[in-house]
Amino acid sequence: MLLPRKKTPDLSLSTVGHGRFDLKGEASDRGTVICFYRGLHCPICATYLKELEARVNEFAARGVSCIAVSADGEERAAAMAEKIEAKDLRIAYGLPLDQARDWGLYLSTSRGKTSIGIVEPELFSEPGLFMVTPQQTLYYGSVQTMPFVRPHFSELLGALDFAIANDYPARGEYTGEV
After folding, report:
1. Where would a tag sit more exposed on the chain, N or C end, judged by fewer CB atoms within 10 A?
2. Can you tell me the distance from the alpha carbon of 34 to that of 87, in angstroms, rounded to the nearest whole number?
3. What is the pLDDT of residues 20-72, one digit of tens each?
């Protein structure tokens, strides 16, 4: 299990049109939002990523970079980037599923074609949203077992504003006896 204020797993992947992403080398002032998505087959992911694309510059104004990540291959990732008209949002691809598990993501098996007629991969990860500090420690994390009911980026931006103004620490770090 990932713990706030502790180092996250490394993450280094190719992106669609933005070269290599390496979490260790991210140069943002306040951290990185990592949005793990299910893949091209998921219409909810496309809607969600389109919302993130629209807010990338708002995150950047707060010193936070953004990336979307899936286990899809390059072709499917490029199709997603085109579908959501990604200009500012980096789309990374080829997430190994053992690394998805290291991030605490749930894995699902294919159910065939989705409602939009795209076949699901044999195995893929379910969504997760993380904010990682420049020191590569976990600040915020949310993982899901299904594609539904995801955190809103507008709320994350509001939470960032509060955290910045109040020097609010990452929470949920306690691992002692209860």
Report:
1. C
2. 17
3. 999 999 999 999 999 999 999 999 999 999 999 999 999 999 999 999 999 99
Residue 90 confidence (pLDDT): 98
pLDDT in the model for residue 67: 98
Q: How far is CA 102 from CA 46, 113, 125, 137, 140, in A?
A: 24, 28, 11, 14, 16
Residue 105: CB partners within 8 Å, gap ≥ 6? Answer: 36, 125, 126, 127, 128, 143
* Single pTM value for the model: 0.97
Residue 164 CA to its chain's centroid (Å) = 21
Write the CB contacts of 137 (distance below 8 Å, at least 6 apart in sequence): 4, 5, 6, 7, 8, 170
Judge contact between 21 and 11, C-beta under 8 A.
yes
Angle between the N-to-C axes of helices 43-61 and 74-83, in degrees from 0 to 180, rounded to the nearest 10: 70
Radius of gyration in angstroms for the set of CA atoms belonging to the chain, rounded to a whole number: 16
Residue 58 confidence (pLDDT): 98
Q: Which CATH class is domain 12-166?
A: alpha beta
What is the enclosing helix (H) or strand (E) of 99? helix 97-102
